[in-house]
Amino acid sequence: MVKPVYNIKDHDLLSLLQKTLLFEGFVAGYKFYSENDLEWEVMRNKLNLVRYSNNEFDDNAVAVFAGDKMIGYVPKANSKTIAECLDKGEELYSELIHVDPVAADKNKVFFKIWRFKETH
């Protein structure tokens, strides 16, 4: 729960939050979920993370969606920390950094995942 700030002039609201970078890299498996011109759809929509605990290849799988379209996963090598945060109910923020329509599929969508926590 966030504590109320009564005198906004005395506080910088962002200083009440700790920002931690949990992941920075490319969406994995993009080629399996891509369609023609999907890059434009990715650029127009917010990225969302969805926990997929029943994935047969990764118990810690976290799917990446652009709007309502799945575009791939957080890479398996990085999924455990992200999955643990989601399993605990933590809110994570996914930030689209770059989409390159002419790049190889494994290098098309670059994004970051951030965790914000209240500081005390």
Q: SSE string, helix = H, strand = E?
A: EHHEEEHEE
How many DSSP H or I helices?
A: 3
SS content category: alpha+beta
At CATH's second level, what is the architecture?
A: 2-Layer Sandwich
What is the mean pLDDT?
85
Low-confidence stretches: none
Number of domains: 1
Amino-to-carboxy terminus distance: 11 Å
Q: Tell me the major beta sheet.
A: 3 strands, antiparallel
State the CATH class. Answer: Alpha Beta
Radius of gyration of CA atoms, rounded to a whole number: 16 Å
CATH topology: Alpha-Beta Plaits
Question: What percent of residues are in strands?
Answer: 35-45%
User: What level of helicity do the residues show?
Assistant: 10-25%
Organism: Flammeovirga pectinis
InterPro entries: HIRAN (IPR014905)
Protein name: HIRAN domain-containing protein
Pfam families: HIRAN
